[in-house]
Amino acid sequence: MKKIFVNLLTFSRIICSLLMPIFYKFLSADIFLVILILVLLTDAFDGFLARLWHVATIFGSLLDKLSDKLLSISIFIILIMKYPFVIASLILELLIIIINFKNVLSGSLGKSSKIGKIKSWIIGVGTILLLGIQLSSNINTKIASNIVSILNKNYIINIIIIIMILSEIVVIINYIFKPKIKSKINYEVKDIKKLYKDNKDYIKKIIFDESYFMKTKNMALIDKLTKK
Question: Is residue 225 part of a domain?
Fold first, then answer.
């Protein structure tokens, strides 16, 4: 049940990421902001609970990566509507996805990096701040108004966007230059279908196995999924 709960948290982030532009269009800004914060919190809690309860699996790890990428893209699409310059972040995020996909196909580790997680949180917090500025006109209290008066300046908005873009660039540099754990298996991309067919039953057996995930966490993804 713990494993199911953690995976459902991650899966809920995927669903919300796909629906995020619709939420933004049809819900009020304050409700949307609350939803965004809750979705970001699932990103913290699913990993924390998976480690706390020792229920981390290959399936959960892959699901987490997918949810992170979908959420980032969804956020950028929303921000572009208000801040067109954010398209630079979207392009960089797509480049990161291409690099990740290429690394996995080449048989490298395909492991989430701490820098990538930090980047995701920078994007999330930056988005909350940018959307919070939009809500400033609805805030009437003296303290809140003072905060808004500081935040509601173009250079602050630009600084937030620049930090988001820089975080993307740092991740790209990290992916390009960090040492990669290569697969022990020599294979071509065209062999992936055959590899899956030959190891289908084995993959079904180990993809949800917590102990197997811990034993193989420093192995290339293709090696994890291939019967020894």
Answer: no
Domain membership of residue 228 (yes or no) is no
Residue 119 sits in which domain range? Answer: 2-181
CA distance 206 to 18: 29
CATH assignment at residue 172? 1.20.120
What pLDDT digit, counting tens, does each position of 88-109 carry? 999 999 998 888 777 766 655 5
pLDDT in tens, 149-178: 555 567 788 899 999 999 999 988 888 777
116 found inside a domain: yes
């999924």: which residue's tokens? 225
From its phi and psi, is residue 187 left (phi > 0), alpha (psi between -120 and 50) or beta? beta
Residue 56, helix vs strand vs coil? coil
Q: What is the pTM of this model?
A: 0.81
Contact 67, 8 (CB under 8 A): no
- Is 191 domain-assigned? no
- Please tell me the total count of domains within the chain: 1
Residue 27's contacts (CB-CB under 8 Å, 6 or more residues apart) are 35
Give the residue from 1, 167, 147, 149 showing the smallest Cα distance to 72: 167
